[in-house]
Amino acid sequence: MDKGALVVQMMGDSSNGGVGAAVAGSFSSLRAYGRALAQTPRRLARRACAATSPGEEMSRVRARSGARMARRLRWHDLVGLGLGGMVGAGVFVTTGRATRLYAGPGVVVSYAIAGLCALLSAFCYTEFAVDMPVAGGAFSYLRVTFGELAAFLTGANLIMEYVFSNAAVARSFTAYLGTAVGVDAPSKWRIAVPGLPKGFNEVDLVAVGVILLISVCICYSTKESSVVNMVLTAVHVAFILFIIVMGFWRGDARNLTRPADPAHNPGGFFPHGAAGVFNGAAMVYLSYIGYDAVSTMAEEVERPSRDIPVGVSGSVVLVTLLYCLMAASMSMLLPYDAIDTEAPFSGAFKGSSGWGWVSNVIGAGASLGILTSLMVAMLGQARYLCVIGRSGVMPAWLAKVHPRTATPVNASAFLGRPI
Which residue spans adopt a coiled-coil conformation according to this UniProt entry (predicted)? Predict the structure, then answer.
């Protein structure tokens, strides 16, 4: 039911003591309050299924933010944000697990399958973002299709997901940075706090500093944040291309079909058959998470009908190509049953005489990937918070857009609190 029609119906009911009367005078007397409580299930059911229209989301609801977000992003900005959001540290971990436990060298096909699934999902986000270019992403799409309850549950899950994942990724930045400079970073750069449970008693000052720095950047300007992301992503992709080239140069094509221990592990390009390839695809799909955050930038895209499809879909295609090449190079470096599941790329080079320095390069590249994925995730989370604030589910203070920076400053600053 449309929310406007629901309000009209409720107002119309006020003359006969229906829902409208309960809303208008729920606290006027004890009897009125009891009557309102009795009507709560019916009113909640109506509100849960009430859906807004796309036009309402783009006009009246968006007006609650005050100033408008600036439309300054183009398709290449979205491609850069998509690359930065997806190509993080995940690929450096999931590749090893999927290869060793499930797909073997066929992990290349696993990445292709996962990339196709991500592309189909990206098409869905693209269609919604073009028809309704607002910053709410999945929250807004569900609000206009299934109603407020589905949108509320989705928004709560998204916010929780971003908070926990950003905290974990920020802390992993310390470890990867330590690998790049040859320092045991977790033990040297984290401060133990006495009195707290073990495992929760270390303050990661580097992670806190990174979060605060990114928060300042996304508060200042979306376009400048995109430029910073483009620079970091370009350097990160250069690191990845270096890893790919080194893998093909140092690798051996025989490792694609020959295990290290033929007596205990099957050989071939698909050692565990089609089931292993699809199980591997399910695992490596985690490496594609991040393209959905690009759809939250739809309100700041200059030409949504052209830039969003190219930006979102193009970034998924490029990431799929990079992932397949990375998986192939790693499979050539070592037999699949000799790959380190926790650090497959750096572990492969550490075992090579005279090539241990490459693991430091991998640590540096992964650190840059963490920075870009954090920036894109925080840009997306700030816009989710802004639109959820517009809906009234969260405080309206979060929905305000600063007239000078044209960014949701309150939501962005709220994200910058120490983790």
Answer: none
